[in-house]
Design brief:
Number of helices: 7
Strand order of the largest sheet: 2-5-1-6-7
Structural class: alpha/beta
Oligomer: single chain
Strand content: 15-25%
Helix content: 40-55%
Shape: globular
Number of strands: 7
Mean pLDDT: 90
Distance between the termini: 11 Å
Amino acid sequence: MKPYIIGIAGGSGSGKSTFAERLKDTFPEHISLIGCDNYYLPHDELSLEERAGLNYDAPEALEFDLMVRHLEELKNGKTALCPVYDFTKHTRSDKVTEIEPRPIILIDGILIFHNPALRECMDLKIYVETDADERILRRVRRDMVERGRDLDSVINQYLSTVKPMHNTYVKPTKVFADIILNGGKNEQAFLLVKAQIEKVLNNLK
């Protein structure tokens, strides 16, 4: 039986990755998780300074074809070798993560509903909608603590690309969602998706 693929989209800092991680932690033996952020194009031909100035919130920043190919491999029972992106260097590292074929595949990212071929792979599409003030605060904390960024660079990136690209590319994709959540910590929504996963897993028995 082919895996059941769930896409979780939403703006940067919306809580979508937290929601995806909680689902994975609930079904650790049955879920594989793919983070869309690892599929940013490397641009090793550019200097670090030039890479830092790129727009990472537009569709052309991502290698959608590779994501689709990896999902097809997982559907066919093969292990996918997912790239690992190094946010401190703004390029891919020389490492890969082995994503195992499991009954449930989660894929999360801000633009995963933008690409029709990627969207077509998904059995369930979830959009996490969160207030903009809350999203920017989460992003500041994440980028400074986890990605070694300073406050000015985070704010400049948010105002120059993150916010306008969210309005142009990310937010419009919620029309493709089967479920729209109000925040990534919505308990009732979590229980709803958890029940759907349990139903899928029970059908495998």
